[in-house]
Amino acid sequence: MVPKAPLLIGTTVSHYTYGPPKPSWSYKFNITMAMVKAFAAHLDDFSLKQTQAMSRLSDKYAPVHSGAIASESVVPGSYRDKAATYVDTLLSDQGIDSTTLGWDWKNDPRAEKPLKGEWTETKAKGDKFAEGRTVLYLHGGGYFLCSVRTHRWATWNMARLGGAKVFGMWKDTSLSARLLF
User: pTM above the 0.70 mark?
Assistant: First the structure.
């Protein structure tokens, strides 16, 4: 921790002098995100497995905005099967042979894992809200840095400004499962 002392001191002083970067950020979360950002500056120095382990730490303290509701969810396999049919039709209509995509997405055993994620919506439904309006949020970071949980501020703002519910997939969901949603 000694090498990170200037970062911790600077973040603490900034947090209590100017406030957190986002109103919903607690002191603990602010420190966690400062550490994650510092870690991200040296990603090339670490293996992917080490990077993923560090990123998971920030999930634990990720706040939910007081005006939002965040709830865990699992997409039923029947929806995924239906989506796979549509994807296959779209590929066929474009003359794309799915075997040339780089992996056999139809028979990928990782697709058997549950497709887990989080729904985010506003507590107060304004005039903009339309029942059934949905946003699919695909978090950046290559599903190894940060997560939908650390970006709840973004999904809540999408829900609030778009008058919709937002579904974000967790990073432990396999690539083929994400594509089949």
Answer: no
